[in-house]
Amino acid sequence: MRRLRAPLIAATATMLVALVTGTVVSGAGAESGVRYASSYDDDIERAKDQQADYDQELEDLEAALEDTSAEIVEAAKRLKASQAKLPAAQEALDEANEKVDEALLQQKLTADKLAAAEAQDQAISDQIEADEERILELEEIVAALARAQYQGVGDDEALGLVFGASTSQEFIDKFAAEHNASRVQTNALADVEEIAAVNRNRGARQEAVREYIVELKAEADALVVETERLQKKAEEKKAALEELIAEQEAIKAELEEKKAEELEKQRKLEAKQEAVRDQIKNLVKKKLAEEEAARKAAEEAARKAAEEAARKAAEEEAARKAAEEAASGGGSSSSGGSSSSGGSSSSGGSSSGGSTSTSTKGVLGWPSPYHVVTSSYGMRFHPILHYWRLHAGTDIRAYCGTPIYAARAGQVQWATWQGGLGNSVLVDHGYYNGKSLMSSYNHLSSYAVSYGQYVTKGQLLGYSGNTGTSAACHLHFEVYINGDTTDPMKYIG
Predict the structure, then answer these.
(1) Which range scores top for mean pLDDT: 191-200, 318-327, 453-462?
(2) Distance CA 354, CA 384 (A)
């Protein structure tokens, strides 16, 4: 029976509290503060997007830190990882604090409900007590009237006895003339019954209120425990956030400490890389000089050959004329004039220098099976050392051990270690649009070709790696026009 009554009792008590406090209590109770989370699928998608964003940021960082020492790269990655956790840690702390605030609010609401219910309980108790005193008074009146009637006392005299009036006039002053003893007795008995009925109803209401008070006290105790748990959790989140901030400050201090040393290393490294590019320029100059020397030698040989041919032709002509004069006995003869002139030879020796096409897209093929540029050619800002520098090539995705191919047919100029470029292969592709065209493939883990070897387009040159001053496995691809670097993406297609 109690189970069936409990919801009704709770509802009744809730309405009583609402009437006393002047507020409406939500039937949802503590659940009204619950925040509903997004769907599971949405959370998964959001997590994937966040991971993709972080992976891209890390890839950008690795690209920006290319040619930087491993210690700086590692510290920067740790800083990036720590910074990536910061928003989530701050969000977790904010959420934990919100939950604490909600719990404290629920505590206050419950305390207010409890105070209101206890006040209601006390008010009912006071009303019952006052009415019980009134019942006692009425019962005493009825008993006194009954005793007086039993003793044969008149109505007026009996009323005087009951109410303590010394004279009939005094009684009349206190009560209206129409109230006789019999009516007073009847009314008193009716009042006793009515008050008793009201008090029985009040008792039922009071029982509901007291049961509700018990529930509120249990809820208040549970809220105290829950609030303490949430406050502890919020303190843990705050400590985690502060730990992250302290970690970041420590890493920044570490990076600042190494900054001057790294700047010096960068100057030396850039000098080495410049020396490598000077080598390429010298190779171009040497090739052009050799080709120019060969051209001049060919021209000189052609000139000498022509002179020798002309000399022989002249000697032959003189001999012929002498023979004719001897045969004619010294008479004059008219030669008809014309001997073989030896012909004017046009030397088609000058090279055209190749195609004169104006479009360069597609001149080179992709050197990696992954057609993804992770960092473009151009000026790049160093996020740790805070200065601009030229990124002289294009970084192309190539996971560790990915095969790397020749972008165009040519001759291998080197397959060796080169400064910050690590294991490097340089291929001379000859001329395009009358200009020298070369390409280099850097940070390789190993080679598949050697110096002087001729390769075809798409032939295996080696495998990608992380050698030299590279932050992660990838292909650093450079293209040179007359020995100067240029944007490879103008030619790849």
Answers:
(1) 453-462
(2) 45
Beta bridge mates, 94:
none
Across the chain, mean pLDDT equals: 79
* Contacts for 95-100: CB closer than 8 Å, 24+ residues apart: 96/230, 96/233, 96/234, 96/237, 96/238, 97/234, 99/230, 99/233, 99/234, 100/227, 100/230, 100/231, 100/234
Whether 128 and 50 share a structural domain: yes
**φ, ψ at 454 (rounded to 5°):** -90, 135
* Structure tokens, 113: 């409900």
Buried b (16+ CB within 10 A) or exposed e, 452-470: eeebeeeeebbbbbbbbbb
Domain that holds residue 388: 364-492
Q: Which residue has the higher pLDDT, 8 or 252?
A: 252
Q: What is the domain count for the chain?
A: 2
Q: Is residue 146 part of a domain?
A: yes
Closest CA to 335 of 321, 322, 319, 323: 321
Query: Alpha-carbon distance 478 to 353, whole Å?
Result: 22
**In which residue are the tokens 């151009």 written?**
378
Mean pLDDT, rounded, for 99-107? 91
Percentage of the chain modeled with pLDDT above 90: 31
- Higher per-residue confidence, 23 vs 240: 240
CA–CA separation, 212 vs 9, rounded Å? 7
Interatomic CA distance for residues 255 and 261, integer angstroms? 10
- Cβ contact 478:429 at 8 Å: no
Q: In DSSP terms, which residues pair with 475 in a beta bridge?
A: 396
Neighbours of 342 (CB within 10 A): 12
- The CATH number assigned to the domain holding 192 equals 1.10.287.1490
> 3-state DSSP: the chain helix, strand, coil percent, rounded to 5?
60, 15, 25
Helices then strands, counting H and E runs in the chain, come out as 6, 12
- pLDDT tens, 169-212? 554 555 444 456 667 767 777 877 888 888 788 888 888 888 88
pLDDT score for 259: 82
Q: State the pLDDT at residue 67.
A: 66
Q: Report the pLDDT value the prediction gives residue 54, as an integer from 0 to 100.
A: 64
Helix axes 181-327, 2-21, angle to 10 degrees: 90
Evaluate whether residue 12 is within a structural domain: no
Query: Which residue, chain included where needed, has tokens 């002309």?
Result: 310
pLDDT value at 320 more than 60:
yes
Q: Residue 443 in contact with residue 422, Cβ under 8 Å? A: yes
According to the model, what pLDDT value does residue 80 have?
A: 83
Q: Is 82 helix (H, G, I), strand (E, B) or coil?
A: helix
Q: Is the pTM of this model over 0.90?
A: no
> Terminal CA-to-CA distance of the chain, rounded, Å?
85
